[in-house]
Write a structure and sequence with these properties.
Elements: E1 3-7, E2 26-30, E3 36-40, H1 44-57, E4 84-88, H2 94-104, E5 108-112, H3 123-132, E6 136-141, H4 149-160, E7 164-167, H5 182-202, E8 209-213, H6 222-230, E9 240-243, H7 249-262, E10 271-276, E11 295-296, E12 299-300, H8 305-322, E13 325-331, E14 352-355, E15 358-362, H9 366-373
Parallel strand pairs: 4-5, 4-13, 5-6, 6-7, 7-8, 8-9, 9-10, 10-13
Antiparallel strand pairs: 1-2, 2-3, 11-12, 14-15
Length: 375
């Protein structure tokens, strides 16, 4: 039958804003046709009051806020522990430099300051050739002793935007009037430590790294003691340590690292092997460096190009396993004499041959083996 019914319907509705949207007492009227009409018996004010009271006694749980997605970040730079392949070049001969780069495609090219200067007409095109080949020049500052050296290196770094400078070349080795006595080694080490500190300070703000000698094969702890006395925090001024591991290699590197640690340096300091190579004139006998053994830095004095090539990768892997190897340089871009013209092994460490006084073709097998180190 048609009539009216009062329905107590305390309805609690949780809407999109996490609140009680309505609390109502409803009246439902049934018409003669059976249709039900629903009326709200409360004013808006009363409904709001009931809602607020319920909120006090039955607070709604607060939702976990949706986290704001982080702003997109640029991809992290790709880094690799693979050492960079380098080439020791003769900057007085731009054609040879280009030939050497073409032969092995190095990422670093070592240029000797003895033949380069701020004013030389050759310096700018040589560095430009290196950079055009997508390599970085590494400036070897051979004569580091003058007081003007730090300011000169800074000027070069600024002008040519250098990233690396290597200070000194085998200055502690017992040859060519260098370290022939312990007293000379001590005085050289003292002067060297002070100069490295001055160079590092002069390069502040340029981003140019300082590569310093730490291979002291002749005098044991003499240099270590002298450097510690002159510059106690010497490792703070050094970005990489250099070695020329022609003569086998692992024991010498381990000795270098022990001495470096004795100076307070880290054992994982980047090591730069800034010269390495095998003397070969494709099987022709060259004068041994070790006469009794008949060898050149521990290897046969009559290796063919192919035989020398076989030795490249194993030597490189041994050196890399022995230290935190940052760079490995092939010495050098070309032979210093034409094939058959000399028996001095120093003339035949090139990646390229020398033909008619000009850079010749890459040494078969040998150049390819070196190039593969950088692949």
């Amino acid at each position: 039958m048609p009539g009216t019914r009062l329905l107590k319907n305390a309805g609690l509705y949780q809407g999109t804003h996490n609140r009680y949207d309505a609390v109502t007492l409803q009246i439902v009227t049934t018409t003669s046709t059976g249709e039900q009409l629903v009326h709200n018996s409360l004013t808006d004010t009363d409904a709001a009051a009931i809602r607020d009271g319920l909120l006090k006694t039955h607070p709604l749980p607060q939702p976990t806020p949706t986290p704001t997605p982080p702003a997109p970040q640029p991809p992290a730079p790709v880094t690799s522990s693979k050492p960079s392949l380098g080439l020791v070049a003769a900057p007085d001969w731009l054609a040879a430099l280009n030939a050497g780069i073409a032969a092995i495609r190095p990422r670093l090219v070592r240029l000797d300051s003895a033949r380069m200067s701020l004013t030389s007409s050759l310096t700018s095109p040589t560095i430009a050739a290196v950079k055009a080949a997508r390599a970085d020049p590494v400036l070897l500052w051979s004569d580091w002793t003058p007081a003007s050296t730090p300011s000169m290196i800074r000027a070069c770094a600024d002008k040519f935007r250098l990233r690396y400078v290597e200070v000194g070349n085998e200055d502690f080795y017992d040859y060519a009037g260098k370290s022939t006595s312990s007293s000379q080694a001590r005085s050289t080490a003292t002067a060297y430590a002070l100069q490295i500190k001055a160079i590092h300070s002069a390069l502040a703000g340029t981003g140019c790294q300082v590569l310093a000698q730490a291979d002291w094969p002749s005098w044991g702890g003499v240099e270590v003691d002298a450097i510690k006395a002159a510059v106690p925090n010497f490792p703070d001024y050094v970005d990489g340590i250099t070695i020329h591991p022609y003569v086998d290699d692992v024991a010498r590197i381990q000795t270098m690292l022990l001495r470096w640690v004795a100076l307070g340096g880290r054992r994982d300091k980047p090591v730069w092997a800034t010269e390495w190579g095998i003397a070969t004139d494709d099987g022709r006998s060259l004068t041994p460096k070790e006469p009794k053994a008949g060898t050149i830095y521990g290897r046969p004095n009559n290796l063919t190009y192919e035989q020398a090539a076989v030795l490249v990768r194993p030597t490189y892997e041994r050196i890399k396993a022995a230290c935190n190897l940052a760079a490995f340089f092939a010495y050098q871009d070309r032979d210093q004499r034409a094939s058959g013209a000399s028996v001095d092994p120093e003339h035949y460490f090139g990646v390229n041959q020398l033909t008619a006084g000009k850079p010749g073709p890459p040494k078969p097998f040998y150049a390819d083996a070196i190039k593969a180190l950088g692949a």
